[in-house]
Each structure stands twice: as structure tokens, then as C-alpha cells.
Design brief:
- With about 180 residues, the protein is of the alpha/beta class.
- The chain has a single domain, classed as Dihydrofolate Reductase, subunit A.
- It is built from four helices and ten strands; from the N terminus they run E-E-H-E-H-E-E-H-E-H-E-E-E-E.
- The strands form two sheets. The protein has an eight-stranded mixed sheet with strand order 5-4-3-6-1-7-10-9. A two-stranded antiparallel ribbon has the order 2-8.
- Strand 3, helix 2 and strand 4 form a beta-alpha-beta unit.
- It comes from Niabella ginsenosidivorans.
- GO terms for molecular function: 5-amino-6-(5-phosphoribosylamino)uracil reductase activity; dihydrofolate reductase activity.
- One of its GO terms (biological process) is tetrahydrofolate biosynthetic process.
- This is Riboflavin biosynthesis protein RibD.
- Pfam families: RibD_C (PF01872).
Length: about 180
């Protein structure tokens, strides 16, 4: 069965972005070998992305072509929005997850942000966490999980460290309490 994998980077102090959504801090860690931290390998394992509307708007604000044109993409939004190039909008998370999981395909990348991460966590929809901890403290920002995440126990299934100081942790949820 397809897995929903929440995969993203966090600062040492647990933020996925600065308060204004800025993620430039991700590139502050020297990376002379141009490591992609396994992203290319991960990207080959997915054929679908899910993200919140704020994350979608941040991506559009990068002033580059939409980066996931070769995947099926869903944006969770409270407002009914018409589909856009490469993106389908929905507010019905339960139906979306049920539909995607019932179809054959590769895994599904939950890109975030914090509100969507919490929604999926609290509904028990996250099958795996793939978290890259970047050795930067940004002081304030958008948390990995926002708006009252439910207590959830995870099992560590893999750890990988890189010469840049980035650590990648892979977890599987055990119990929702």
C-alpha cells in the first residue's frame, strides 16, 4: 500500500521556516560537496505531493517554474479554488487520502506546512516521517507541527548523518494517544 511520508527539513530549534515563510536559512550550512541529502532518491519513490495552501504560495513565490510538474499535486485549502497548472485544490482531506491510498502508485509526499502536518498527524494519516535536521538555530518561525498536535509515539527506523552536520531521521508512528 502507498505510504504518506512527511519529508522536510527543520532547524535545530524545530522550525520549518521563519515566521514569514522564508527558508533561505536552509542554504546557510556550507555544502561544498553539493549533497542533496538523499532527496533525489526519495523523489524517485513518490508520484504525488500534498501541501497546504500557504506552502503552495511560498513555492510560487520562489519565482521558478513549479518544481513538481512531473508529479500529481494536491493543495489543501479551506476555500474552494479552481485547479491551477499542475495542481488540484481540495478541502476534503479524508476523501483525498482514501482515494489516493486505494489507487496503485508510488508513495505520497506530504510537504507541509505545520497546520497540514498536524491535520494529517491527528487523523493518523502519516505513515512515515523523514526529517532532516539542519544545524541552524533560527530563533522563531513556523513549527513542524502547529495548532495542537495530538501526542504520538514514533519508532526510529533509520538515522543518517552527513559531513555538513545535517542529520536525517526516519520514523514510523506507533501509537496515537
Amino acid at each position: 500500500m502507498r505510504k504518506i511520508i512527511l519529508s522536510l527539513a527543520v532547524s535545530l530549534d524545530g522550525y520549518i521556516a521563519k515566521p514569514d515563510g522564508d527558508v533561505a536559512w536552509l542554504k546557510k550550512v556550507p555544502n561544498p560537496d553539493k549533497l542533496d541529502y538523499g532527496f533525489s532518491e526519495f523523489y524517485r519513490t513518490i508520484d504525488t505531493t500534498i501541501m497546504g495552501n500557504n506552502t503552495y504560495k511560498e513555492i510560487l513565490g520562489f519565482n521558478i517554474p513549479f518544481p513538481f510538474q512531473d508529479r500529481q499535486n494536491f493543495v489543501i485549502s479551506r476555500a474552494a479554488l479552481p485547479d491551477a497548472a499542475f495542481v488540484h485544490f481540495t478541502s476534503d482531506v479524508d476523501h483525498l487520502v482514501k482515494d489516493l491510498k486505494s489507487k496503485k502508485g508510488k508513495d505520497i509526499w506530504l510537504i507541509g506546512g505545520g497546520q497540514i502536518n498536524t491535520l494529517f498527524l491527528n487523523k493518523g494519516f502519516i505513515d512515515e516521517l523523514l526529517i532532516r535536521i539542519v544545524p541552524v538555530v533560527i530563533g522563531a518561525g513556523l513549527p513542524l507541527f502547529a495548532n495542537k498536535p495530538g501526542e504520538t509515539l514514533f519508532e526510529l527506523i533509520r538515522t543518517e548523518t552527513f559531513s555538513t552536520g545535517v542529520t536525517q531521521l526516519t520514523y514510523r508512528p506507533l501509537i496515537n494517544t
